[in-house]
């Protein structure tokens, strides 16, 4: 005999199970996890902002709205826009960070109570690694700011890359109405070639730097004479004749081969003595050697290297006379410290004129 269960009891049991199931599905979700959406491993310049975003997911595996996310800078020089933010209907909570420092990373923690936190790292780009383009013949406008690369003297500097398609003369002009300008010139091996301050010392605070260089790529540093100085400037580089004008002084470097004309114009030499000679300048690092060779077809060449001490006093480092026209005057010098050398290119007796060639190695 089969036992029958009344239909009413079966229906009641089914109804109870259904109610229990409905009660489980409608229980309130809670924040369960955090994940990074945007900002992690991003980088920008100091003073710029990076947007930070995290997503809050609920215990129902859906985006959770209304969660308060706490943001904390764990390490680094940057500043958050707000200490907290609330997740929206998509579960995303947003914030932003203003970058500080020069090249340092900042670590940021995002957290929600009872949920494992997440960490975001943002980076401040080292401004000393930023290279702007300086096309020949084009005037470029820039500005020194407190977020620029800083030199050891507290002044700020912007770097520009310039390419010389052929060997010869180049002139770099920097001007500003806000500060006393200063120019640095380097090769791409970070070796200093030259520098310049006033185009007319003590009178005009804009800068002209003239150099005779081999073809290649070079770095120009737009700088100020005074520390902690900011403001707008213009910068321009253009090729000029490699032939020196009377009494003009140009920077040179290793690898230069140039033909010049010596005339009878009397110019002040590094020792403040008038002489009919041309003058160029070279910067040498301690232990660096330079060999200067000068040859003239119509006169006996004379080369004199001058050096300067820390007080600006000048003395002859070395010199050489060619035995006659058509022969070379050769000098070799090894720097005992980082120093600027003045090279005087003239004639034995000081009366020779005509064309000559000089090589620096």
Give an overview in words.
With 361 residues, this protein is mainly beta. The chain folds into three domains: 31-124, Sandwich (Immunoglobulin-like); 128-240, Sandwich (Jelly Rolls); 249-360, Jelly Rolls (Sandwich), CATH 2.60.120.1220. Helices cover 5% and strands 52% of the residues. It is built from one helix and 30 strands. The chain has one helix at 7-25, and strands spanning 31-38, 43-44, 49-58, 68-75, 79-80, 84-86, 92-98, 105-111, 118-124, 131-133, 140-144, 149-150, 156-164, 168-175, 181-187, 192-196, 207-213, 216-224, 231-240, 249-251, 257-262, 267-268, 274-275, 278-284, 289-296, 301-308, 314-321, 328-334, 339-347, 354-360. Strands 10, 12, 13, 15, 16 and 18 form a six-stranded mixed beta sheet that branches. The protein has a five-stranded mixed beta sheet with strand order 2-9-8-4-6, with no helix packed on it. Strands 20-24-29-26-27 form a five-stranded mixed beta sheet, with no helix packed on it. Strand 15 and strand 16 form a beta hairpin. The longest helix is centred in the N-terminal third of the chain and has 19 residues, at 7-25. The protein is rod-shaped and about 105 Å long. Mean pLDDT is 92; it is low at 1-24.
């Amino acid at each position: 005999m089969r036992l029958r269960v009344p239909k009413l009891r079966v229906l009641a049991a089914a109804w109870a199970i259904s109610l229990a199931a409905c009660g489980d599905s409608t229980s309130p979700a809670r924040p369960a996890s955090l994940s990074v959406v945007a900002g992690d491993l991003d980088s920008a310049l100091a003073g710029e902002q990076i947007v930070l975003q995290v997503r809050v997911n609920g215990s129902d595996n859906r985006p959770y709205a209304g969660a308060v996310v706490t943001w904390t800078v764990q390490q680094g020089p940057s500043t958050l826009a707000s200490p907290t933010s609330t997740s929206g209907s998509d579960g995303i909570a947003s914030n932003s960070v203003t970058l500080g420092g020069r090249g340092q990373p900042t670590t940021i923690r995002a957290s929600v109570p009872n949920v494992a936190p997440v960490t975001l790292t943002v980076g401040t780009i080292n401004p000393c690694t930023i290279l702007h383009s300086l096309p020949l013949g084009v005037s470029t406008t820039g500005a020194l700011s407190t977020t620029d690369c800083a030199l050891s003297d507290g002044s700020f500097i912007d770097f520009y890359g310039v390419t010389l398609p052929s060997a010869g003369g180049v002139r770099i002009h920097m001007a500003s109405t806000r500060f006393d300008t200063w120019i640095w010139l380097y090769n791409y091996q970070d070796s200093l070639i030259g520098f310049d301050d006033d185009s007319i010392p003590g009178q005009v605070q804009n800068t002209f730097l003239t150099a005779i260089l081999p073809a290649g790529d070079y770095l120009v540093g737009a700088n100020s004479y005074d520390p902690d100085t900011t403001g707008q400037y213009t910068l321009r580089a253009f090729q000029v004749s490699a032939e020196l004008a009377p009494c003009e002084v140009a920077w040179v470097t290793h690898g230069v081969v140039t033909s010049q004309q010596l005339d009878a114009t009397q110019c002040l030499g590094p020792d403040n003595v008038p002489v009919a000679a041309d003058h160029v300048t070279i910067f040498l690092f301690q232990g660096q050697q330079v060999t200067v060779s000068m040859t003239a077809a119509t006169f006996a060449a004379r080369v004199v290297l001058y050096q300067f001490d820390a007080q600006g006093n000048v003395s002859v480092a070395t010199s050489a006379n060619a035995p006659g026209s058509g022969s070379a005057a050769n000098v070799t010098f090894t720097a005992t410290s980082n120093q600027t050398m003045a090279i005087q290119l003239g004639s034995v007796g000081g009366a020779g004129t005509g064309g000559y060639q000089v090589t620096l190695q």
